Amino acid sequence: MATQPLTVSDPEGQPIGYVVGGSLQSTLRVRLTVPPQTIQEGSFVTIRSGNWQFYGTVVDLQLGATDPRFADEPSEARLPRGLVDLLHGQTLYTNLEVLPKLMAEIGPEPGTPDYEAWRSEHPEGGRIMSVRTVPLHHATVRLAGAGDVAEIFGEPSERNFVLGYTREQGHPIPIDLEKFVQRSAGIFGATGTGKSFLTRMILAGLIKYDQASVLVFDMHNEYGYDDIASDTREPVIGLRTKFPAKVRVVGLGQDTRIHGRTPDFNLVLAERDLEPEDIEMLTRELNLKETTPTTLAALVQSFGDRWFHEFRQMEVGAEETDENGKKVPAPNSVAYWANSVGTNVMAAEGLHNKLRRLFEKPYILPDPPEGATIQQVIKSLEAGQHVVLSFGKFESDLDYLLVTNVLTRHIREAWVRKTEAYRADKSKNPPPRPLVIVLEEAHKLLNRDLAAQTTFSTIAREMRKYFVTLLVVDQRPSQIYDEVMSQLGTRISGWLGDESDIHAVLSGLADRDQLRGMLTHLQPREEVLVMGWGMPMAIPIRSRRYDERFWNEVLGKTDLSIEEGLQKLGF
Amino acid sequence: MTINFVEVHRQIQQAAGEAQREQARLRDEFNRAWETLQTWADRLPDLGRRVEQALRYNPSLRCARPGQEALTTRVPAPPAPTQGLLLAADGSNANPNHHDRIPFGLINIGLFGYDLGHHRPPQELIQSEVLLNQDLYDDLGTIGEERIALERDLRERRALLERLRDETVTPLVTLTDGPLELYRQPREDPEFHARFQDYLRVLTALAAQGVITAGYVDKPQADLVVRLLELALLDEDELAQAGQLRPLRGITDRALFGQLLQPGERSALFGLQSTTAERFRQAAQGQLELHFFYLNVGLAGQPKVVRVEIPHWVAVDTTAVTILHGVLLQQTQITPNRRYPYALIRAHELAVVTYQDRQAVAAMIEQEWLNQGVVVGEESEKQRAKQDLQSSSRRSAR
Amino acid sequence: MTDQPLTSSTPLEIGRMLRADTTRCVVGCRAGQPHLPPLGSLVRLPVDDTYQVYGVVADIQVFDDGLTRQVVISPNLDPSVILDNQYNRNLPLEIGVLFVGYEHNGRLSHLLPPRPPLVLHVLYTCTPAEVRRFTAHGRFGYFRHLLRATDQPLAEVVAAHLQQAQACHAQGGNPHWAREAARELITLLRDDYATLATVLSALADTELDL
């Protein structure tokens, strides 16, 4: 499995201090016996007390003195070095605040007769549970060793996908992909914190693990094919490149090319795929009037699922001269239709004008060609493939909002149907394949105004009832509706500059106060805090690098092929 | 108790009046003595004659004899000698006490050697002698305090002689506290005579070695020179009553020379006329004849006059007298407030036998007596009662 | 006296005990003792064949008397007089010793001696081997006796003691004794800022390599 990227200089399970106080309700106080710089906030520590082992994270470091005068007085100037060290060693100290999260009965010291007896009574070892008592005074606190980390976070495997490494000692920290997809999850971080790399890695893990299908709304065409990183100008490998058979890159609109390449297939929306709520959802984007629902209802009343097609054909202001020489609305005009159904002409004409931006979209056709439909996407997902929907040149918010919503609504409906069939007769119908929908710039769809209207918030709330969950990727979590935020299971967050974003990421979690500190102090790059329902306990990690080595590890290659080697050398 | 203050006051008033009259008389007499000193300063042969005349009537006459120097001679302080050895001796004794269970006596002699050139640190020497059994008795029974004092003085001088026998540095100066004459009136018993002869032999030996020997009298009460002046004041026919007629009674030599001598100055050398002194004069071809001079070891405005007794062989040696003069001034300046020779202070300190010392020796004796099975007499009840009163020290260890 | 080694390789008889209480004693000896144990040094007072008491010199008092008071005001003091008073004269010198432990039947203890020595018991200096043995016994338990003596220049006594004992330990090949001792002192005194500051300041003035 993953080799550790950091030099391990400390022996495993190095003692760092002993418990001096604290409470289960808050945190444990630990007197540090090593220099404070060797420990960081968020360090994963173990506390051995009797037959129990406790696991927790460092949430604060505090400088203390047995007498404030020892701290006030800079004795370095008056006393020789050795004496100062001795003095400070005893009068000045650092206390850690450790947030205990888990505990396990691990029995007496291994190797003792007591341990053998205990082992025979507990053949499978101790069970890890939430912390519900405290260790004794003076219990030894250690930096968690690789074994402790594995005990809590699991041994790295395809299912336990290594997301990064502990900051001090570089022990691998995996996430359980099985749990990860069981609830909607989120990846957050300010721009430049490596969100999209992290997303790529998780997607690679999910695809490799292959127990769920992934649908990526790739607004900026980053995930499918190889790309150039915006900041470093380095080539970035796309998922399709590494999983050519499993990943389908879908281009929005006919003849759309992505990075100059023809996608695996194209997606065109059929006019009948659109429903009035899809339009209502665009109220703000299109600056729609409050009369819109009425008009839309009249349209559906008149034309059924062809409403969009018919409305699209109408013209505003088309007139003809009647027998009396008087100008009247032409039969193909909006006013004509409005008058005929008794709805407000002005409102209908206004809506038509506003919807003109949609009518002009080339990816909405009366009849999409075979193999370029929503059904095709659903089929691919059902077949166990993973879909990256690249928006190509349709990069506006309008495109994004409309397409993601329409597509997701249809997909969800499909999964709801399959789920109900499965529930109705489990012997005949297989369970639907779990699906993860990856939502870039999620706040555009999940903000307070829209959340209620889109399918996404429904999915987030439903959790895994219909085997569909979201993976929300965003740099402004505060803009996401807090009801949605609080439903997120696993949360992975890089550095966030804005207090409201930090608050949002932590919403609905216990120990928010402690986690806030860890989140605030993350390095702006390559460090993330992993927390939430999917994790045994929150832990800050140094994230894996998305590079050749990552792919070698994920794809199980231990050595570079000759070609890749030559390529790396620039041939 | 009530005091009759009226009566007491009357008596005090009366006494004060008498004291005032006495003081006035003494003042007058002092002035008279002073005038006589000035008048007779250089009439030394006359004075000598008068002494001889008076002696014819009164052989036990005690007074100063004029020497070669005028009565008002003032010899200024010489520089302190920078070489030689000063040896001071002092003795102390514990007398037999009939309350002791085992009677004993103790003589302790302290010698203090002071290198005048400061080439070596001072030396201390202590000689202790316990008198037991037969030592405590003579033909007349238990020996008395006088006899022990005599033994002590004799041992002092003997110790000086022994210490100096092989000494090669010069000059050698010895100093003892008190007159060179022996302590107390001599008794005409054979034991005393024998001791006195011993003493004279020691002095003779010192003389032979040329040791500058001196006795130091710290607070002289004598009126030897005053008595000499009285002889001058008497008419020729009154000389027969010399010693009985005392026109200057109450005036001391000390007062007279306190007026005459400036700090550091010594007086003229005088001979000592007394019956005891006569015995010294008759020995060793006159070498041991006693002389003296007065010396002001005090400060300006605070005269302190002491008498220094020297034997003949020193008195005739001008250099020796000068050295002695210088040594004594140097020694008395070491303790500015006390003005007493340092070497003598130290010799006394070495010699002194304290009560505790005496008790320790008594305990040692008793222990040994017991060890050897000698029957010990009972301590007297009186002694035991006194002991019980000696409360032990309750000082804390802090 | 500075020419003297800190501790003699053979025990030297210094003086005899004058008085004592539970925690300390006073030993009398002659002034001008050539081997006077320095402040802070470890000493012992054998009581009998099986029992001896250990102490640390915490106080040395030199007494004067009437003569020294006389001599001291002399305008020009002869060298002979100075030497005489320093070395000849029987002026008492009292050594204050804090009890720090005892040895009974060959077993050391850092507790206070169960009973103090008696009057006139002899005070000896300790050899380096004895110093090493006593000071390395246990975990510096005897320090509490030193630190209790607040009526003494405690910091100076402690610093002097560490310096001398370390010299003995260095002879025995242990360069770290004083460092451990200093660590223990800090532990004992860390709640007493004023005393600790004084002790550390005194330690800083030693030549100990801490």
From TrEMBL, chain A:
InterPro entries: HerA-like, HerA_central, P-loop_NTPase. Transmembrane segments: none annotated. Keywords: ATP-binding, Nucleotide-binding. GO terms for molecular function: ATP binding. It comes from the Bacteria. It holds the Pfam family DUF87. Coiled coil: none annotated. Residues 163-411 form the Helicase HerA central domain. This is ATP-binding protein. It comes from Thermanaerothrix solaris.
From TrEMBL, chain B:
InterPro entries: NurA_domain (IPR018977). Residues 378-398 are annotated as: Disordered. Residues 84-353 form the NurA domain. It holds the Pfam family NurA. Residues 388-398 have a biased composition (Polar residues). This is DNA double-strand break repair nuclease NurA.
TrEMBL record, chain C:
This is Helicase HerA barrel domain-containing protein. The lineage of its organism: Bacteria, Bacillati, Chloroflexota, Anaerolineae, Anaerolineales. It comes from Thermanaerothrix solaris. It comes from the Bacteria.
